């Protein structure tokens, strides 16, 4: 039970991290476009 909860928590964290990375790279791309 504990292991199962830990795994789903990790998956959720990974999904959030992916979403943050995606947003971050889009923001960086937007900023570099604005600078040029």
UniProtKB/TrEMBL annotation:
Domain of life according to the entry: Eukaryota
Protein known as: Auxin response factor
Organism: Rhizophora mucronata
Classification of source organism: Eukaryota, Viridiplantae, Streptophyta, Embryophyta, Tracheophyta
């Amino acid at each position: 039970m504990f292991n199962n909860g830990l795994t789903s928590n990790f998956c959720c964290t990974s999904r959030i991290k992916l979403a943050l990375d995606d947003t971050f790279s889009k923001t960086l791309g937007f900023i570099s476009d604005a600078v040029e």
